[in-house]
# Entry
Amino acid sequence: MRHPNRLFMAAAASVALLAILTGIVLAQGVASEKLRSGDTVTIAAGETVSNDLYAFAGTVRVDGTVDGDLVASGGLVDVTGTVTGDVLAAGGSVNITGTVGGDTRIAGGTLSVGGAIKEDLLATGGQLTVTSSGTVGEDLIAGTGQLTISGAVTGDVLARTGTYTKTGTIGGTEDVTITPRDSQPGQPSAVPTATQQAIDAVRHFLVVVLVGALLIWFAPRAYAAMKTALQQRPLPAAGWGIVAILGFVVLVMIVLIGMILLAIAFGLLGFSDLIGIDILGGIVAILGASLVFAVVAGYVADALVGVALAGLVIRGDNSSRWRELAVLAVGAAIVVLLSSLPIVGPWVKLVVILLGLGAVLIAGRRPRGTDAVIASGGFVQPPQAPQAPTT
# Structure
């Protein structure tokens, strides 16, 4: 089966096409108006950019006016002038002391708002400060290590932060969740007690059994195929597990590159409304792929390896779903116990993840003719090798 190769080639071709499209637009000179890059990008005081601006540099400084949206990334992003539209900025330090007519979305290590944001402010980073001269016309949503509000927020404040200080005013509701750090910088984190480790292990065991049971009842053919792949081809499964991890990283990079190129292309071609959809779609795709990868690596792998280990001890025909579930529970207990051991536990978990991911890939690549068959007890069993005819 060559479908994964076709998908990879299609994704690579799409990225290449976007790169070519962007290059064509750049060659036509449209980029000179909207896209600026270099060591330093400066919109001087008195200068007006009469369209959206995409700025990527070590330092991005807007002292003049951007009559549209501003998308900026750099070590330092400093907005002291006016942006009539929205601001999307990321950098080591992002400072807004000017005026933003639309929404503002910023991310970075140090974030500061000392000017006027007419609509919502969405921020994530190490430290966010709304100074005494800063105002937010609508809501403030933040996820930071430290949050300080000394200015005025007209709407609601929804935040999750490590430390919170408020000397300013909030016109709407104030919903701030404080999540104190377990340890101070430079100090070792607290070591979990034996009771906490045992509780975590029991919780993990229950989730593994639940995930395995869902596979047995609702995806029996896939479960049987993955189980057979692991039992019959453990070494290739480990190799394919490495391929799966590398493939996941490559997939995330392709989605990120595609999202960025699409956003630039849409902006240069004047389709500004599609930029938000593109970014949202890229984020959803990455989160979805990450969720699937985490479930397979964290729980499905434990279930498959557990069944394979338990099968070495518990012999017999698992033609019943309930018997298979019992084997799964025994195997999951073994895997969770070994993974919880000090020193060797993380290495055991790594091997389990590689084997489980590899089994999933091998099962997904199997020819259609090797599908499992229904056993008399209702559970799906892998096909048996044909026996030689007797004379």
